[in-house]
Amino acid sequence: MLCSRCDVRLDYVGRRMFHEGTRWGVLGNIGEIFVNRERFDIYVCPRCGRVEFFIDGIGERYRPY
User: Fold this and answer.
1) Which terminal Cβ of the chain has fewer Cβ within 10 Å, N or C?
2) Is 5 inside a domain boundary?
3) β-strand partners of 14
4) Measured between alpha carbons, how far is 43 from 49 in angstroms, rounded to an integer?
């Protein structure tokens, strides 16, 4: 994949999980059951720092890593 700004190959920097909603603190892990979390594959342009996110599990066979 190429950066749409620089036309430079994007670097794969890994898979990250993002937390949506509030932290439950007192309820600990039990409260986390009701929170939505998504996993994304992340690619970064080494020249301009542009970031591309791709949802984990969709279209992986078309990615260059």
Assistant:
1) C
2) no
3) 42
4) 10
Place of tokens 């990615």: 63
Query: Other CB atoms closer than 10 Å to residue 43's CB: what's the count?
Result: 21
**Whole domain around residue 24: which residue ranges?**
11-62
Beta strands in 21-60 (DSSP E): 36-44, 51-55
User: Closest Cα partner for 33 from 43, 41, 21, 44?
Assistant: 21
- pLDDT tens digits for the chain (65 residues)? 899 999 999 999 998 887 666 655 555 555 555 556 678 899 999 999 999 998 877 777 776 65
